[in-house]
Amino acid sequence: MQRYLKENSVYFLVPLVCFLLYSGLIVPGHFQLELTPKLNYFRHLADAFLNGRLDIINPPSKTDLVIYHGKYFIYWPPVPALVFVPLVALFGVELPDILISCLFAAINVWLLMLICKNLSEKFSLGLTQKHIAWIGIFWGLGTVHFYMAKEGDIWFISQIMAQTFLFAAVYFFLRKGNGYLILSGLFFAMAAYTRNHLVFSIFFFLFLFIAMEKNVSIKDIFIKGFVFVLPFVVFSFLNLWYNYARFGSLFDNGINYHNMNPYFVENFKKFGYFSWHYFPHNFYTEVLHFPHIRLHPNFLEREEEGFGFIWGSPLYFLLIPALVFRRKNYDMSTHLIKTGSMISAILIACLIFLIMGTGWIQFCARYTLDFQFFLIIFLLFSWKNLSGISFIKPITICLILLSLWVQYVGAWVR
Question: What's the confidence (pLDDT) of residue 274?
Fold first, then answer.
């Protein structure tokens, strides 16, 4: 046991350090344990479920809630509320939302590192513990995952939990056996019904499956595919019932009745919740927009609409050489996984850019967290190619350190 802990200590230490930073124990020096000032409606919905209701009684605020026939509902998918059900049953509705978010965020770092370890072993990527530690540090402290982890509101905790479910789905998918496969399918369904556009991660799973199972029969493909998608089908029927029970329509999630901020009302009336009208502005703001810089140690000015995620996490600039410089003799598995990850990333990103709004109010571009995992996988499988570029290793370390600095400013200093 002692030998195992020594050999695998990095997989525990990095998530632990991230948790201590998320929770505030390191900065500013005490746990952020505020009780219920945060607008996390999931625990109130969990309380409603425990009392046989689908509407929230006496919500702490009416901000962004759906108001229908004098009752209060949420339009977000309800899976995180199911996670809160046992917590609310044991401790009541007054829960430390920030601490819970920090725990899930630390689990995300841990799961991502395990995924990288498993991918490296299965596809001979040659990643050392040092490499995997840097990946965990970057994800945990060099992306918008950092500042979102320490926010307990429903907008942020849903994204944090969605990554937990997605990472768990990938982790179990990499394991052998139908038991693990149905677990993977369950977590995939939970991810998709926490952040609906994560359903497009199915392409990553499909290409990963083809890369892993080189001599599988058509019959096995159908059987394994059925096992994987079965939980999603069940969740889909339950979601249709959930909509009908609340609003009398299978496909109505209540978005037309929600108490939105006046900031969005005019656009919503003109273009609705999803529209190509939003795409150019959202793409520019969430990908390209350079942040406003000031001559101050806290060098970033607060921009409530956010700024491009590539400036918030400059490591992603490595995607440019990864896309431009390609080896001629690619391993087919590498090609498949890179293709699947990029398809999922592009489809999720496109749907995000069609949404009314960029994630306001925020730091950097929080919606982009939903597809950044697939960008990391693409870089991971490009590393052997990238490592042949002169000075790429010190450049990579500098980009990671710059990412950490920017996100630290966003998380604690701003």
Answer: 93
Can you spell out the DSSP letters for 301-324?
Answer: PP-TT---HHHHSGGGGGHHHHHH
CA neighbor of 72 nearest in space, from 85, 58, 86, 83: 58
Radius of gyration for the alpha carbons in the chain, expressed in angstroms and rounded: 21
On whether the CB atoms of residues 224 and 356 are closer than 8 A, the answer is no
Characterize 336-367 residue by residue with b for buried, 16 or more Cβ atoms within 10 angstroms of its Cβ, and e for exposed.
bbbbbbbbbbebbbebbbbbbbbbeebbbbbb
**Site of tokens 């069940």:** 234
| Residue of 266, 343, 355 lying closest to 306 (CA atoms) | 355
> What distance, in Å, lies between the first and last C-alpha atoms of the chain?
43
CB 341 within 8 A of CB 130: no
In single-letter form, the type of residue at position 204 comes to: F
Distance CA 356, CA 56 (A): 25
Which pLDDT tens digit goes with each residue over 371-406? Answer: 999 999 999 999 988 888 888 999 999 999 999 999
- Give the Cα separation of 206 and 131 in Å (integer): 26
Q: Compute φ and ψ for 34, nearest 5 degrees.
A: -60, 135
Which pLDDT score, from 0 to 100, does residue 35 have?
53
Tokens, residue 150? 């320490």
Q: How far is CA 28 from CA 21, 103, 364, in A?
A: 9, 18, 22
**In this structure, are residues 166 and 188 in contact, taking their beta carbons and an 8 Å threshold?**
yes
Cα angle, residue 19 at apex, residues 16 and 378 outer, rounded to 5°: 85
Residue 175 φ then ψ, to 5°: -90, 155
pTM, entire model: 0.95
Is the Cα torsion angle 386, 392, 394, 395 positive or negative in sign? negative
**Residue 2 structure tokens:** 């002692």
3-state class (DSSP) for residue 413: helix
Q: What is the pLDDT of residue 2?
A: 58
d(CA 24, CA 34): 12
Distance from the Cα of residue 166 to its chain's centroid: 7
